[in-house]
TrEMBL record:
Taxonomy of the source species: Bacteria, Pseudomonadati, Bacteroidota, Flavobacteriia, Flavobacteriales
Organism: Chryseobacterium rhizoplanae
GO cellular component labels: cell outer membrane
Subcellular location: Cell outer membrane
Domain Outer membrane protein beta-barrel: 369-766
Keywords per UniProt: Cell outer membrane, Membrane, Receptor
InterPro entries: Beta-barrel_TonB_sf, CarboxyPept-like_regulatory, OMP_b-brl_3
Gene3D superfamilies from the UniProt entry: TonB-dependent receptor, beta-barrel domain
Pfam family, one: CarbopepD_reg_2
UniProt entry tagged with the keyword Membrane: yes
Protein name from the UniProt record: Outer membrane receptor proteins, mostly Fe transport
Length: 789
């Protein structure tokens, strides 16, 4: 009887063993496509299974009772793939997707993947598929959804506590140095920009948001290069020229680039300070002109496949600015209460500065088995800068004889950062686990030497000089889990960081030591409907530690009556971010709330006893903001595109004034960025874009910032079978980006007008040489290492 039942069931058992089919999805360029949606329908056209390809483009069909099924493969930007399958066949299935094309008015246009892609924990802006790839990385950030750049300060949804990374590696530069580095990073090297409002546990907890610039990997066999030059004319001329070279052969890939920038930089400003105690008004006009003829950006990267499971890479990046110099001639007029000039003084500031930044990183990635991998990365960054200034002041005060004052300052700063991190990843069809540990050590040393002619002879003043040493150890552990179940995607994580810091001030002596543990939870949820609508929710807790220069208490004088000063007792800022997102047909909506506890920022106050205007970094009580972001890419025609990016926010800052009272600064702030682009020929070699950016009035602590807007125009043309590329760019066409930054409460009444010389025209040329086409990938047999997986 058992034998009869066995022979009756034997065909069914055989079929059950054959209900497993492996497949791979790739495009016509042999690139394997991840996260591609796979659907399986039975003979009644009913959906019976749904899954996505893994990071290597692979998928497995198993546990299917039916024999005759239909396979449907969908991926945005590619034509729909359908095929009837007989699951009795065991041969692996190779699915090749073709890019979608559309023919209009005799012109064949290739549909490209959308510029913006919403993921469960970030927004990805695909730069390589947009007209702005002809710009530099700094200009690309200006055009990135949810990113604002106001007075050269980066912001995401109103917050300026931003961590900038390149390929997930932290950049140890801020301010003008960061801007110069990104301006010398070519847009052709940028693949995408990831806007991570609530960074997952894998990222360090510093900063309220992360902007990760993802650089392209070289996929072309052989040797190729790009020779580029750029001329910029604003108030004064500037230029950039450079060479990028790539080589790839079998297991080895090498990239090296060098760019040199030079020119004269200009900035206009006027300070107004009203002193109600003396009923005087001080007006200083500062037109700053700096020359820098030697800005060098160097990048080198080598990757080698040790075996089919192990990759190693070594990366070096450097920025060298050996000499920036200039002389500021700043006249100041002092008006009495009848608005008559009664006194004046003129400051002549002769200065020069030097900056060097070096970063080296080493990374090893190892596949442990089919589902798990291990990564180890260590990097070292050194930033060395110094500044010298000789300040002469000619005083002509009412009732006093004319007088000349002179002081010298020498500032030196050295920052060294070492970091090492281990990451483990395990991934299946529905689950993904990430876990890791990181240790970092930062050591900074800042010195200020001050000399003046108080006794008629220029002498060193130890009481006005200072040495500040700072050390910080940071140890972190993290773990996160992502789960995909049908239309739902979930991800949650927890990161804990131990921070041990010590700051020592030499004069007057002060020691500041702190040790603390902090926990940083994150959570994400995303739901996708049948018609591709995406609803998302995320929460994250973050910390913003003060920049190292903000902690230096030494008084850095601009002139006799104005100086900048940091605070070694600055507290770290804790930020809570809450986001609700919606995406559908390239509509991206983000409703958000942000709460900041003890945010640190630069503010100013006037001291009536000494008639001084002091700029310093401090913690205000708290900041709160809620708002709505909207981004939409309208593909009006295959050759005509419109992008609209809007952000409306209500922002409140609470701060204690110089009188000890608590004040509230609040505003409704609107940031608008609208652009339109055109493809002017059928080969997509000729493109044009124009647009405008608008910033309504905003706030920062005690500051109220006036509105500003700008218009721009970009023309890009390729020649000689795409080997030669020319770009023409007009920025701030109507010279409308100047702003007024004011402080007015109690006895504080001052403001300054600022214009960063944004109006200009630039012309650039790029020439591609060497091999520019991807060769057909050869079929590679499995190695012994892969067979062990």
């Amino acid at each position: 009887m058992y034998k009869i039942l066995f022979f009756l069931c034997f065909p069914v058992l055989i079929l059950a063993q054959k209900q497993k089919l492996k497949g791979t999805v790739m495009n016509t360029e042999n690139e394997k496509l991840s996260s591609v949606k796979i659907e399986l329908y039975n003979s009644q056209n009913t959906l019976i299974k749904e899954l996505k390809t893994d990071e290597n483009g692979n998928f497995i069909l198993e546990g299917i009772a039916e024999q005759d099924v239909k396979l449907v493969v969908k991926n945005l930007g590619y034509s729909l793939f359908e095929k009837k399958l007989d699951l009795k066949e065991l041969d692996p299935l190779n699915v090749i997707l073709k890019k979608e094309t559309q023919e209009i008015e005799g012109v064949v246009m290739t549909k490209r993947k959308p510029l913006v892609k919403r993921k469960v924990d970030r927004l990805e802006f695909n730069v390589e598929n947009s007209n702005i790839s002809s710009l530099n990385a700094w200009e690309i950030l200006k055009n990135t959804p949810s990113v604002t750049v106001n007075n050269d300060v980066l912001g995401v949804k109103g917050s300026t506590a931003i961590l900038v990374t390149i390929n997930d590696k932290k950049i140890m530069l801020t301010g003008d140095e960061l801007k110069n580095l990104l301006e010398n990073t070519q847009g052709d090297d940028v693949k995408s920009v990831e806007v991570i409002t609530n960074p997952p546990a894998k990222y360090e907890a510093s900063g309220s948001a992360v902007l990760n610039i993802v650089l392209k990997k070289n996929k072309i066999e052989g040797y190729r290069g790009i020779l580029s030059s750029k001329y910029v004319q604003t108030q004064y001329a500037k230029g950039v020229f450079g060479l990028s070279q790539y080589y790839k052969k079998d297991k080895l890939s090498v990239m090296g680039s060098y760019y040199r920038g030079l020119g004269t930089y200009y900035r206009e400003g006027t300070d107004y300070v009203n002193y109600p105690e003396s009923q005087t008004r001080w007006v200083s006009t500062m037109n700053r002109k700096d020359k820098n003829y030697n800005q060098n950006t160097l990048n080198f990267n080598v990757e080698y496949e040790l075996d089919s499971l192990t990759n190693a890479s070594l990366n070096y990046s450097g920025y060298f600015s050996p000499k920036s110099f200039g002389t500021y001639n700043v006249p100041t007029l002092i008006y009495n209460n009848q608005d008559i000039v009664e006194s004046n003084y003129t400051t002549i500031n002769d200065h020069r500065s030097r900056s060097i930044n070096n970063s080296v990183s080493f990374q090893i990635d190892r596949k442990l088995n089919k589902k798990s991998s291990l990564s180890w990365i260590s990097y070292f960054t050194g930033n060395n800068a110094d500044k010298y200034q000789n300040v002469i002041t000619n005083l002509n005060f009412a009732g006093q004889p004319p007088k000349e004052d002179n002081f010298l300052t020498k500032n030196k700063a050295d920052v060294q950062l070492y970091s090492t991190q281990f990451d483990y990843q395990w991934k299946s069809d529905k689950l993904e686990l990430e876990s890791g540990a990181k240790y970092s050590f930062v050591k900074t040393s800042s010195a200020l030497d001050f000399s003046d002619n108080e006794n008629g002879i220029l002498q060193y003043r130890p009481e006005k000089s200072s040495i500040f040493d700072y050390k910080e150890h940071n140890f972190a552990l993290y773990s996160s889990l992502a789960y995909n179940i049908g239309k739902w995607n979930f991800k949650g994580g927890l990161r804990t960081e131990m921070t041990d810091l010590e700051g020592v001030v030499s004069e007057p002596y002060e020691l500041n030591k702190t040790n603390y543990w902090k926990f940083f939870p994150t959570f994400y949820a995303q739901y996708t409907t049948e018609n591709k609508q995406e609803f998302g929710f995320s929460y994250g807790k973050r910390i913003s530690r003060p920049s190292y220069s903000w902690l230096n208490p030494a008084k850095s004088y601009y002139n006799l009556f104005s100086y900048y000063q940091g605070d070694p007792k600055l507290k770290a800022t804790i930020t809570h971010n809450l986001n609700l997102t919606y995406s559908w047909k390239e509509w991206n909506v983000d409703l958000y709330y942000r709460k900041e506890i003890y945010p640190s920022m630069e503010i100013s106050y006037q001291e009536p006893n000494t008639n001084s205007l002091i700029y310093y970094f401090t913690n205000i009580e708290k900041g709160e903001a809620f708002g709505l972001s909207l981004y939409k890419n309208f593909q009006v025609k295959p050759w005509w595109n419109i992008i609209m990016s809007e952000n409306l926010e209500h922002n409140e800052n609470y701060f204690k004034g110089t009188d000890g009272m608590l004040y509230k600064n609040k505003v409704w702030n609107w940031v608008s960025n609208i652009s339109t682009s055109f493809t002017l020929d059928k080969n997509s070699d000729w493109k044009m874009e124009m647009g405008h950016r608008y910033y309504s009035p905003g706030i920062q602590g005690t500051f109220r910032i006036s509105a500003a807007w700008s218009a721009y125009f970009v023309m890009n043309r390729k020649f000689l079978n795409k080997k030669l590329e020319a770009s023409l760019i007009f920025t701030d066409i109507f010279r409308t980006t100047g702003q007024k930054v004011s402080t007015k409460y109690a006895n504080q009444d001052n403001y300054f007008l600022d214009y960063t010389d944004a109006q200009g025209i630039s012309f650039s040329l790029k020439f591609n040489f060497g091999n520019q086409s991807v060769k057909n990938a050869k079929t590679i047999k499995k190695t012994a290492e892969q067979d062990r997986l």
